[in-house]
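Following up on my earlier thread - several people asked me to post the actual chain instead of describing it. Fair enough. Here it is, all 314 residues.
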Amino acid sequence: MIAVQSEGLLKLFGKLPALNGLDLLVEEGTIFGFLGPNGAGKTTTIRILTGLAHATGGKAWVLGNLIGSGKNKIAQQIGFLPEEPAFYTWMTPLEFLDYVGRIFGLPSSERLVRSKELLKLAGLEEAAKRKIGGFSRGMRQRLALAQALMNRPRVLLLDEPASALDPVGRKEVLEFIEQLRGQCTVFMSTHILADVERVCDTVGIINHGKLVTQAPREELLAQYAIPALEVEVDDKSMGDLVAWSESLRAMPWVKAITQSGQTIRVTVNDIDTGKKELIRSAVQVGIVLNKYEIVRPSLEDVFMQLVGEEETKQ
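Reply from S.P.:
Thanks for posting it. Predicted structure:
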């Protein structure tokens, strides 16, 4: 089943398009990374999907329910985490989750059981009776994720869930999200490429309100990521590094070269030829290498290539 779908979604703020004909198709059960630079239209999309904003044009569906049709079916089947969640800081996590459960009309016994389940999942069992006002930002974000799951949603919409956290907080939140794999569809917007590469199995890249591409993560890497070789030159060979680098640039199998200190990264057109010729070239000019490796293509390489192409078209 399709969890989230949009066709020609348009949102104007005055004459400025935040969304400009967005087409999406997210299968149920996936962790979908909605990736794009700041201002690309990610938050606007999520606000429309949750019913918090109205589209200027186009259509969108969540679990087959048309957004804006006046039905209340969608609210009962989704969970939502805004970029800056708010709390009653004088409450404890147990009191807060109980309050959220009341909003969804859950009976008392179910609220208690579900609250304890979610606090365990969020790693907040020991803090269950502490005031939320004393929580770290990472703890609050995990509690916000827990409240978004209170009604056992089939679709969980997360707006930049880890962008404002320190490394420890980000790690904790991403581990929490990973635990949800297979339990519900996760639609996660972010501009942090490493987060998408770590937890998402499908990626959609948005820029200027339009979908640039969408595919399984590994398919994107295989199709768009440019292979590269990286070498670290020994101290004794530093004097020959510039000349060697220039000779490599003239090779037909070399696409680009970047240097950082003693490390040279060679982006290649043909990885098989590159593997054969790079070492041979170093030996011919007497370059001593401390390290040689094939660099695994990253989602950042794909993102920069595709968004760069999109910017050129603008």
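Residues 12 and 18 are 6 Å apart (CA to CA). That should answer part of your original question.
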